[in-house]
Amino acid sequence: xxxxxxxDKKTAQNILEVNNIEAVYNHVILVLKGVSLNVKKGGITTxxxxxxxxxxxxxxxxxxxxxxxxGEVTKGSITFNxxxxxxxxxxxxxxxxxxxxxxxxxxxxxxxxxxxxxxxGYTRKSNKEVKNDLxxxxxxxxxxxxxxxxxxxxxxxxxxxxxxxxRALMANPKMILLDEPSMGLAPQLVKQxxxxxxxxxxxxxxxxxxxxxxTNMALQYAEYAYILENGRVVMEGTAKSMRDNEDVKEFYLGxxxxxxxxxxDFKQYRRRKRWL
Amino acid sequence: MSVExxxxxxxxxxxxxxGVMYSLVALGFVLIFKASGVFNxxxxxxxxxxALTLVGFQTGxxxxxxxxxxxxxxxxxNWYPSLHSFLAxxxxxxxxxxxxWLVERLVLRHLVNQEPIILFMATIGLAFVLEGxxxxxxxxxxxxxxxxxxxxxxxxxxxxxxxWASEGSEYYGMYIDVLNVWATIIAVILVTALALFSQxxxxxxxxxxxxxxxxxxxxxxxxxxxxxxxxWGISGFIAMVAGIMWGTESGVQFSLSLIALKALPxxxxxxxxxxxxxxxxxxxxxxxxKLAEIYIGGLLDIGAIENWFAYVLALVFxxxxxxxxxxxxxIERV
Lengths: 276, 334
Prior knowledge:
The structure holds two protein chains of two kinds. Chain A is α/β, with parallel strands linked by helices. In chain A, β1 and β2 form a beta hairpin. In chain A, the strands form two sheets. Chain A has a six-stranded mixed beta sheet with strand order 6-7-8-3-9-10, with helices on both faces. Chain A has a four-stranded antiparallel beta sheet with strand order 2-1-4-5. The longest helix of chain A is centred in the last third of the chain and has 18 residues. Chain A is built from twelve helices and ten strands. Chain A has a single domain, classed as P-loop containing nucleotide triphosphate hydrolases (Rossmann fold), CATH 3.40.50.300. Chain B is an all-alpha fold. Chain B has a single domain, classed as ABC transporter involved in vitamin B12 uptake, BtuC. In chain B, 69% of the residues lie in helices and 0% in strands. The longest helix of chain B is centred in the first third of the chain and has 34 residues. Chain B is globular and about 70 Å long. Chain B starts with a helix and ends in a 14-residue tail after the last helix. The interface between A and B is medium-sized, with 36 and 24 residues.
């Protein structure tokens, strides 16, 4: 096999490649200090890490919502389907097939559920396709069909999350950047949402990049995982290898091997063993 | 009917109609406030600028002619003797859209995601700049605006109502300015069109989405810039309509830009975020003012209540219902 076809094969697999990006807010606050990740086409890739690790910023760098928050990507490159998407407007990206579901749901509160979903199809040309997609979204979320005429602001947190995901689906995306769908939801509901996301991934072939704090849940559904800390990728691997990794167990899943440990030991362990 | 009752009806009707004028101005504020979260201090100047431009186009005045004459010693004044009102209005609409585009391009674009107070200050700056540019372009003399809308008291109504009073009483018929009737008709059409547009079209829906949540609107691929240009264009158009009405009534001059001040109490009453609120607020203020002038004024034997009544009413509202009658309820789930 020659060199060229090797590259072709590699890039055919990756729908999104993020190379060593740095993101800065307000020209001074450096949030991402060189993040690289590859997202395989058709799969669920997850981005793990604690508060302030840079998960949301990474997603916003990709969707370029960063620009409206006075942030910018200063270094590195982002390619989607082998195209440089680094400086594109969010609306151009949505047309290309990349859409972000923001953390905290961000429904249009004073619009009805159905109007919310329809706004998701804003970039679409054909009205007929939008109508079909609306029915499709209602199939995934039957609950939304019941509540189609109620104002989104008055629906429950779970329903709002469904609206947000359904709204993204209305844009007919190739890839959804899903930012913490589990935020503020009951465990039962989180499971339900993840099931639907995984169905959407399988049936629609939509690639999903999922930022999550609920490590346990994310690792159950994702195929590949990255762990961010302090604006850097500190670990990556298949979801299975992550689940079996002692450090991940200790720091993110809250399971430690040898029963109770004293706090002093824990601190020493942490000091001794660093990931950077 | 007794003369008192007829007088009361006349006062209310006149109040309603001058209220429509207030509503028109307030409407421009509400639209911009909803879509870009800015209290547009320049709305009044927009109305002035639109009216000036309209007169300028109508009389074929060359923009900046005073300046050019002063600099080059030329004696330019007019392109052409006069232009049909309809064409002049069209040209003015185009100008207002260009103005909206410039505002987005030069002001708003650079202030995305800034504090509301910073945007507000930017619009104050815009008001001053536009005032100066308007003066420079079209001259600062008081101009007469006539686009063919009839004005003056309705003789027909006067004659029709003169017989309504009971026999033997002194009554000379109702007085209603035809201009106000026209203003009402135009405002009703305008508001209906706007309501239908924002409720039933895709762009209208996007407009409401932007009003609700900028970030989310961006994330689904709505371009904030085009929505802003659209909204500022629409309020430029409304400013023009208001400018025509007020300009026809009292001439086009600097004081036209002060109608913005009259819109403030209307907004406080109706709520900054509600289109129906702007209309009903305007009507309430209009009627309240006229009734207060006649009845409270008559009772206490003081005049010019009309001038401050609206502000006192606004103050009362600020104390007891700061979001106004129809302002967005802050949706809180518990």
